[in-house]
UniProtKB/TrEMBL annotation:
Pfam families: TPR_9 (PF13371), Transglut_core2 (PF13369). It comes from Psychromonas aquatilis. This is Tetratricopeptide repeat protein. InterPro entries: SirB1_N (IPR032698), TPR-like_helical_dom_sf (IPR011990). Belongs to the UPF0162 family. The lineage of its organism: Bacteria, Pseudomonadati, Pseudomonadota, Gammaproteobacteria, Alteromonadales. Residues 62-199 form the Protein SirB1 N-terminal domain.
Amino acid sequence: MELDEQSIIEQPVSNTTLIYEGIDYNAYSLIQLACMAESEITGQSIAKFQDAMKLQLIVIKSKLSNQPENNLDKLNALLRCVYDEQGFTGDWKAFFKVKNALLSSVLSRRKGVPISLGFLLIEMLKEVGFDAYGICFPSGFIVKVLLNNESLYIDPFNGQLVGFTELELKVRGQLGNHARLTSDMLQADSNETIIKRYVNVIKAGYIQADNVELALLCSDILLRLDPEDAFEVRDRGFLFQQLDCFQLACNDFTYFIEQCPDDPIVSLLKQQIKSMSDDLVAQVLH
């Protein structure tokens, strides 16, 4: 089932609040939560996505029907099916585009970024019986599979199994040459942590596309989930500033300064507040 990519990205937003403070993250799968977030942001039909996903899962199950035992051979067969035969792949050429973050677009195009591809891969792995989890790894989303009391790690961007040496190289590439892989980095993250990361990725895509209104909606969802996140309040302030909502921006910057007075960006924010306050006075005078 094909989903119209352009309509997914540009259609009006939903009026229904699906992601809210106090939501029971454990009552939903990762892909359900991600689909709910996308539906709230873009208005994309959850039922339409679910139908398309069901078809994809049927294909995967039929391809692996002759491999009932969950072992390394079956895991490799699944990865070949998804990445070689079905053509799912990471999109280097348009890495920061919204179409590579939104699940419905990624399912239709079979191209995406690690977190969106990771959600789809986890769902496929679970459908055929594997225990699969997500990790918000420093360099990008990683999928963890438990197999015979052993943890295996998959880079969902290319479908490759990655060992500790490769994972440490990824860490050093992201955090600096002196950084080292630690056991904490390989722990499965909660649905709450992962969904917040996912909405942040979508927000970044909309910022990159200069779609400030939808970026602001993403920020609203994140603050709904964590109203006291001072850094998200600060980011929302910058979005308000771009929309010439100077009083709202000043309020957000002031809140951040109060919560994080020693942050290096405080002096810049104070300058921004003064500049916007002058603009507000000028607007009133005219």
